[in-house]
Specification:
Helix content is about 40%, strand content about 20%. It contains 5 helices and 3 strands; from the N terminus they run αααβαβαβ. The two termini are about 25 Å apart.
């Protein structure tokens, strides 16, 4: 195999995932291309599941004011509050933000709570 072949194949895998989105099968294939054994891929994918990661979605945290929290409740927790300023978000690779990140969010003016939500990540098209 030529030098860098595994990296090239991983890029091709990433390109192929653009049509259907990244999923467990592409994650496993990429692991195989990088030389991981089946048990290592199994462990990694199970670890991702335990951490609550979702393929094609990002887990975000947002500090909200009392009125923002009331807006979320009124919307049945299905919409973000009306914007009155720019959002300060925290993106996490697990179910819980790190303490420092949550502390920084709560330091926002008049924040009373930190809410957690997921957003879909579009596939790259270029």
């Amino acid at each position: 195999m030529c030098p860098g072949g595994d990296t090239l194949n991983a890029r091709r895998t990433s390109k192929a995932s653009r049509k259907s989105g990244w999923n467990e099968n592409f994650e496993r294939l990429e692991g195989m291309l990088f030389g991981y054994e089946d048990w290592q891929n199994d462990w990694w994918i199970e670890n991702l599941r335990k951490r609550g990661l979702t393929w094609g979605a990002a887990l975000l945290y947002l500090a909200v004011t009392e009125s923002g929290l009331a807006g979320l409740e009124d919307a049945g927790y299905r919409a973000l509050p009306r914007l009155t300023s720019s959002l300060k978000l925290l993106c996490s690779t697990g179910e819980e933000p790190d303490d420092e990140g949550a502390r920084r969010l709560m330091a926002a003016a008049d924040a009373v709570a930190v809410v957690r939500f997921r957003v879909k990540i579009p596939s790259w098209t270029s």
